[in-house]
């Protein structure tokens, strides 16, 4: 075990930090300058290491630590390097893994530059945990798919150029075998976006309605009826390493709150019950951090199979820990917990600076056990894939 | 010995339940919630007609002359129905005047409060989580109030506000009195409006209340919040049970998944056995005054905490839709937040339970 | 609502108290004197109110408050009025409800006097939560049942004269329909009792092995194949009101412990975290008490249907509350939690006087979610009978 | 950067695992447990042969010269196997002498400890839940010890005992020294014996230890208990998963009941992500000394608490049989109790986490 990065990586970190310092001097960056910043970062190999140069990547040797160093330093700088999770995070690796060559050439470069924004069309009102029961359909008419139906929980839909999604194309096939994975343009007649307001008042998601929406026949990833398998590839990227530093930042926000809140006339951080709850949380946060370190280290060493079990637990564990932080934060704001989240709290997710930001965190944490694979589904996965328990009894459907 | 409800009490609950069902159909509640004022004059007037505004006001002053338990049972149904309106502050103002007002004050205010013609409220909280009388800092000197009160229910609407003052006094402030200013607070629970009250020499009249009156008002409020939480939590459990019976995933109602069933069973088991807590606290407030403060604190801490937990479970069991503004579950989630915080969070109440227990 | 008992009941309480005072003066009572004490108490109508005089009862009008007053006062006196739970508590009401006349005459009087001690033969190693899958069998040979098999969790077996139990008599009938409810003598060849040691070292239970054990053909309660229904009647009596005063006594023991334990050099009861946990428990204990009061009151007023829901919850709620008490108690004994329960702790269940008594309570509380209907089974019952949820998906067995 | 195990470390664990499997088959563990001395000389000798007695003793003194992480990994497997024996006290005594002993003391003791010929232990606890050095009250004056130590592992068996003294000193007490008396304690965990040590002028020799040595011994012990708890809890989870796959009720393995599956999934999720806590704390003990006390306290509090919770879940999932003496689950239930309490309960460790965090 060796937790130091060593001189080579420390030098790399220094180099990255110098680069971010230069760009930070000009912050905030305009849309154009931001794109330029990412271009320069890519030229130096800081971004898109795993993506061939011909698609706009920097095509470097796999090095999880260099990736982690860049992520840490870029995050710390506040520079706009993270593009939409759906594009760079999901569709790009999916196309790299199983897309057609022309699809890669057409979609990846623009996505990496930030010109193409993507949204995701998976969930439906009747298909949440049981995603494979989705009913939005596409039928081939000549050289076009004609799409009808209704998707929900689509983030960034208004700002998107493209959507990737699952649609039922083989109505007679069994549930999982009847789905295809299609790409489509968002801005076209028949596609209607309706914002969906959250319980805290914020609007991050949409419903999308399809009324004879069209997309070319070859805008399909994988073969007809293989959409479920494609989505599994894709979801693998969605549920990637839950960053340990993110959880620590949230917890530090909570500590700050405990320092500036008062209980019985003294700082809450001196209140014995609060201290106890914070110290318990320190244990959970450190588990998140060290588990992240284990995963990073294993990935870097090509030993991912050694961390397959904790990877199954990332979502559930992260959800529970975030909920504990949010609940303690809500307690610490005391009577201000009667207030609604302010407009500014709804724009920044997890605002730790204001008391009403913590009211919002309390409400937002309600989504934790629901979104991106419910906690109960996670428990099934952990039990079945992690502990080798048999599948649930199912109705004979 | 009878630890249960009388037929009259069951009828009272039934009456309010039917009132809410007919006067506050789901779309109307939704509209009121979205609009955000927490008040509908017509609804208030109709609820006063069935007696909701004056349940505990003595009959000689035009009220129903009932006890705190009856009021708490009414609040259980208000909680069930998420009925928007100034019921809490109004009820506490009426109790305060009935308990501690002069004959003149009673005659002046109680009949109007009982009929709902006048709306009352109480101004108790101050900055830094102050709720207890001993910590009040608003000065009342030479007939004038100076200081600030936070989180006053329906401060803008109330015809009279009972303002808690240094040393546990209560002073009657009339609407729009010079030297008083109200700022609306954007509250998380849109079924109950809140305001901030700034007092710079506003004229007011003290209640010649016997010592301990303000504490009794706080205790009564805690009982009512406990009752409201019970009603709300139970309503959510029933709503969610119904949802899980109809929502299908994997080809079957999700209620057939054992983990769903057990989450609901656990939620119900956290709530149902706590019904007696608010019953007992309400009874003690009337009949066992020496036990009342601790019983009220216990009921408030326990029930509002459990109801908040249950509201989270019920959101989770609704899945994504439960997280949306358009899902009615949010009414009870946010009422649970209000109930848990208002009149002092569970943490503070539990410390009182320990203190009052002589621990 | 009226929590006073009123002058009539207060007078009754005074009378009962006078009676117990007289007998307490002679405590501890010999076996014979104890029987005499119960006889006198029965003559005065303090005991066995619901049982006809011809079976040894006092045959009084139903009065739940008088019953409660007697129970409270007799418990407080420490006099030996409670006979084994299996006899007076279970088989007597069962025989009264569905026994043959000769069975009542033969078994009830001796049981009420304490001459007959009963044990219960329900659970088997392979039939716990799924009791109906029991396999111990009885076959009719001439005018006798011949019993073979293996029962477990039989308390008081060594001291018992009789056993009541469920045995499979109709091997070809469906699971629930193949069981009969038999009575048998314990002291006979072929019946072997093996003590079962608990995790805390105490021995309260036994295994019972049957090797061609015999009982007369008419020692059957109900008809052949109706044993499951008979047991349901019987279990109704097992899960009777969970006394609120019992929980308060345990909690008072915990408070005493918190007063005499030290944390950081001062009484634990002054430690803020301990106070918080105690105050939270006060809420739970008061729920148990007030729920008991609701049930008592409803029973007295013939309105039991109004408390059918809390009655379903008694077991689970009581278990959870007892566990919370036991765990806090274990924390309060601090380093002494390294010690084993002492002999004296194992004799008295829930000894609150000694530190090792709390170690024993911690261990004993492990049985809570298991014994007498596991917590998971309770949750199913609450969900299904209490909330109207559908039955679990079951395997097609 | 490498936050994982080396091949050598995996091999070390594998070696101990195989040792336990071959030398401590279930009936033997059961027999040792029932017998209750917590010790089997043959088992100890054989474990010393594979190096278990001297893992961290420097090679120059006959040990394996490994680090605390390696020792913690060994303890993870000891926890898995519920291996009875004086490993904990012995390891801490060896660490104390290696860190704080004079050259003479090292030469005298370390080779014998490393070979297992001599058994070492540590006497740290005192009455009233005292574990921290700052609270020690045993006097060491003019070469003699006076006072009482509680909960000394294998006090009767140890050839040398490191006794914690006023001001955080450590003194070497030899077996059967005059003026020392040992009384056996009937411990709840029969895989680890305990004794009470009464000192009335017993001759002893101080370690010329640098300041902080005793604290480091405590920290190391906490890391080892955390590791032991991890191993034990994980073993219980695997055992229980296997049990639920085979135990049938209602015609199906109980693992198919979703609530059973979810209880196990939750238990596993409480434990697995905490593996890095003891890794990190062990690493910090060697390489990041300023972080070590807090990392050790965090690992101790978190892992021993979680393991105790998990042990309860696993008893419940075993049903009735899990509550019996004859079921092996009890070994880990009771080891979890020991680990949670020994060297200071989670409550005390969490308070240290807060203090050391500058909160």
What is the string of helix and strand elements of chain B? HHHHHHEEEEEEEEHEEHHHHH
Structural class of chain B: alpha+beta
Task: Please state the structural category of chain A.
Answer: alpha+beta
Number of helices of chain A: 12
Helix share, percent of chain A: 40-55%
Distance between the termini of chain A: 50 Å
Would you identify the regions of chain A where 5 or more consecutive residues have pLDDT less than 50?
none
By CATH, the architecture of the largest domain in chain A is named Up-down Bundle
What Rg of chain A is obtained from the alpha carbons, in whole angstroms?
23 Å
In the CATH scheme, the class of the largest domain in chain A would be Mainly Alpha
Count up the helices of chain B.
12
Overall form of chain B: globular
Percent helix among the residues of chain B?
40-55%
* Percent of residues in β-strands of chain A: 5-15%
Topology, number of strands of chain A? 10
Sheet bearing the most strands of chain B, described? 4 strands, mixed
Query: Which runs of chain B of at least 5 residues are low in confidence (pLDDT < 50)?
Result: none
Q: Output mean pLDDT of chain A.
A: 92
Largest interface: A-D, 55 and 47 residues
Structure, described:
The complex is a heterotetramer, with 2 copies of chain A (397 residues) and 2 copies of chain B (359 residues). By secondary structure, chain A is of the alpha+beta class. Chain A has 12 helices and 10 strands. Chain A folds into 3 domains: 7-82, no CATH class; 118-232, Butyryl-CoA Dehydrogenase, subunit A, domain 2 (Beta Barrel), CATH 2.40.110.10; 239-386, Butyryl-CoA Dehydrogenase, subunit A, domain 3. Helices cover 46% and strands 15% of the residues of chain A. A 4-stranded mixed β-sheet of chain A has the order 1-4-5-8. In chain A, strands 2-3-7-6 form a 4-stranded antiparallel β-sheet, with no helix packed on it. By secondary structure, chain B is α+β, with helices and mostly antiparallel strands. In chain B, a hairpin with a 2-residue loop joins strand 9 and strand 10. In chain B, helix 10 (292-318) runs antiparallel to helix 11 and helix 10 packs antiparallel against helix 12. Chain B is globular and about 75 Å long. The chains are: A alpha+beta (397), B alpha+beta (359). Chains B and C meet through helix 7, strand 10, helix 8, helix 9 and helix 10 of B and helix 8, helix 9 and helix 12 of C.
């Amino acid at each position: 075990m060796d937790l130091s990065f060593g001189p080579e990586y420390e030098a790399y970190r220094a180099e990255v930090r110098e680069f971010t310092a230069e760009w930070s001097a000009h912050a905030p960056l305009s849309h154009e300058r931001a794109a330029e910043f990412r271009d320069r970062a890519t030229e130096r190999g800081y971004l898109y290491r795993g993506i061939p140069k011909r698609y706009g990547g920097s095509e470097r040797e796999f090095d999880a630590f260099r990736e982690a160093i860049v992520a840490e330093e870029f995050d710390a700088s506040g520079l706009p390097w993270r593009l939409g999770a759906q594009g760079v995070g999901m569709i790009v690796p999916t196309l790299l893994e199983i897309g057609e060559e022309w699809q890669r050439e057409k979609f990846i470069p623009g996505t990496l530059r930030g010109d193409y924004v993507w949204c995701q069309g998976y969930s439906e009102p009747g298909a949440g945990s049981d995603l494979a029961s989705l009913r939005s359909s596409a039928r081939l008419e000549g050289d076009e798919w004609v799409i009808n139906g209704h998707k929900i929980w689509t983030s960034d839909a208004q700002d998107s150029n493209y959507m990737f999604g699952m649609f039922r194309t083989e109505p007679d096939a069994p549930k999982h075998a009847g789905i295809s994975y299609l790409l489509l343009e968002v801005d076209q007649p028949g596609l209607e976006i309706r914002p969906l307001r959250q319980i805290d008042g914020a609007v991050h998601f949409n419903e999308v309605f399809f009324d004879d929406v069209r997309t070319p026949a070859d805008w399909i990833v994988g073969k007809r009826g293989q959409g479920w398998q494609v989505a599994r590839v894709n979801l693998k990227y969605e549920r990637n390493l839950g960053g340990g530093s993110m959880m620590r930042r949230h917890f530090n926000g909570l500590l700050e709150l405990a320092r500036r809140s008062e209980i019985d006339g003294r700082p809450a951080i001196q209140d014995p019950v609060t201290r106890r709850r914070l110290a318990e949380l320190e244990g959970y946060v450190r588990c998140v951090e060290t588990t992240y370190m284990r995963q990073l280290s294993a990935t870097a060493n090509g030993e991912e199979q050694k961390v397959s079990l904790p990877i199954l637990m990332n979502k559930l564990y992260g959800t529970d820990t975030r909920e504990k932080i949010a609940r303690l934060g809500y307690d610490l704001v005391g009577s201000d917990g009667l207030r609604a989240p302010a407009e500014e709290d709804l724009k920044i997710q997890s605002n730790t600076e204001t008391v009403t930001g913590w009211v919002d965190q309390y409400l937002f944490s309600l989504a934790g056990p629901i979104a991106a694979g419910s906690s109960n589904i996670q428990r099934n996965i952990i039990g079945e894939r992690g502990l080798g328990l048999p599948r649930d009894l199912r109705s004979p459907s | 010995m009878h630890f249960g409800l009388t037929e009259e009490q069951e009828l009272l609950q039934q009456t309010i339940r039917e009132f809410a069902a007919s006067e506050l159909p789901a779309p109307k509640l939704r509209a009121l919630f979205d609009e955000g004022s927490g008040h509908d004059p017509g609804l208030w007037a109709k609820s006063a007609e069935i007696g909701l505004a004056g349940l505990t006001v003595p009959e000689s002053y035009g009220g129903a002359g009932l006890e705190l338990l009856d009021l708490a049972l009414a609040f259980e149904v208000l909680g069930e129905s998420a009925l928007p309106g100034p019921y809490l502050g109004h009820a506490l103002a009426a109790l305060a005047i009935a308990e501690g007002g002069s004959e003149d004050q009673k005659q002046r205010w109680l009949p109007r409060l009982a009929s709902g013609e006048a709306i009352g409220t109480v101004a108790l909280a101050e900055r830094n989580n102050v709720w207890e009388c001993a910590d009040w800092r608003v000065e009342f000197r030479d007939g004038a109030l100076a200081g600030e009160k936070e989180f006053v229910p329906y401060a803008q609407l109330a015809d009279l506000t009972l303002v808690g003052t240094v040393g546990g006094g209560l002073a009657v402030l009339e609407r729009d009195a010079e030297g008083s200013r109200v700022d609306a607070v954007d509250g998380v629970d849109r079924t109950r409006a809140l305001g901030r009250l700034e007092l710079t020499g506003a004229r007011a009249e003290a209640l010649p209340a016997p010592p301990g009156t303000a504490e009794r008002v706080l205790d009564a409020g805690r009982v009512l919040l406990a009752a409201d939480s019970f009603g709300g939590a139970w309503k959510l459990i029933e709503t969610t049970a119904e949802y899980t019976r109809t929502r299908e995933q994997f080809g079957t109602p999700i209620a057939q998944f054992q983990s769903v069933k057990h989450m609901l069973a656990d939620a119900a088991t956290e709530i149902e056995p706590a019904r007696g807590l608010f019953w007992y606290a309400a009874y003690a407030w009337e009949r066992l005054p020496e036990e009342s403060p601790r019983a009220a604190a216990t009921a408030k801490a326990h029930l509002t905490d459990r109801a908040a937990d249950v509201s989270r479970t019920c959101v989770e069991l609704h899945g994504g839709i439960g997280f949306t503004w358009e899902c009615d579950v949010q009414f009870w989630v946010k009422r649970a937040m209000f109930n848990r915080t208002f009149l002092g969070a569970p943490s503070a109440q539990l410390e009182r339970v320990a203190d009052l227990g002589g621990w």
